[in-house]
Amino acid sequence: MVGYLNLILRLTIWFLLTADFSVANIIIGISIALLLPGGKTAKESLKDWLRVLGEIVVAIPQAYIEAFQIILRPHKYEDITMEQVKPGRTPGLVFLDIFLITFTPKTIVLKYHEAGWYEVHWVRRRRKV
């Protein structure tokens, strides 16, 4: 099951990059998704995937809320924080974590450190005390 989720994630990224749903592009996308390394060695669990997909569903309304907050009340301050990656994350789940953080308007991942940290830029309304 997790292998199918990896395939779907890779195809989704391919279609977002190409924006082409022709038969030839679908065949190319499936070929590339199957040829990319790491599909068989990933030890992700279905539970992790479902949790992340649930977080994505929650992040969509959160992104709209944050966008309206920024429009209605100026956010003049910025912070950069280091957030730890959850243990045992595979590259696919790290990508989804980065996507979740970057999806909302107030945060963006600046850098992923191989030691297990995300460098996150925040836009805030008030200075942190």
UniProtKB/TrEMBL annotation:
Transmembrane segments: 12-36
Top-level taxon of origin: Bacteria
Keywords: Membrane, Transmembrane, Transmembrane helix
UniProt-recorded name of the protein: Na+/H+ antiporter subunit E
Organism: Nostoc favosum CHAB5714
